[in-house]
Amino acid sequence: MLLSDAAMSYEADKRIEGFSAQTLKAYRLQAKLLMDYFGNINISKITTMVCQH
């Protein structure tokens, strides 16, 4: 599943749950920033591995 598809599904789920318009707007912004950084990649490529500098 692409990151954009996951973000849209997540937002739709939260809208059904009754989250406020402002919260949904914040989620859209965070999803956009994530996609700006990683691109619209398959979510299976995202891990929690932390790189130390």
From TrEMBL:
Top-level taxon in the UniProt lineage: Bacteria
Stored SUPFAM superfamilies: DNA breaking-rejoining enzymes
Residues covered by the Integrase SAM-like N-terminal domain: 5-53
InterPro entries: DNA_brk_join_enz, Integrase_SAM-like_N
Pfam families hit by this protein: Phage_int_SAM_3
Protein name: Integrase SAM-like N-terminal domain-containing protein
Protein source organism: Virgibacillus tibetensis
Lineage: Bacteria, Bacillati, Bacillota, Bacilli, Bacillales
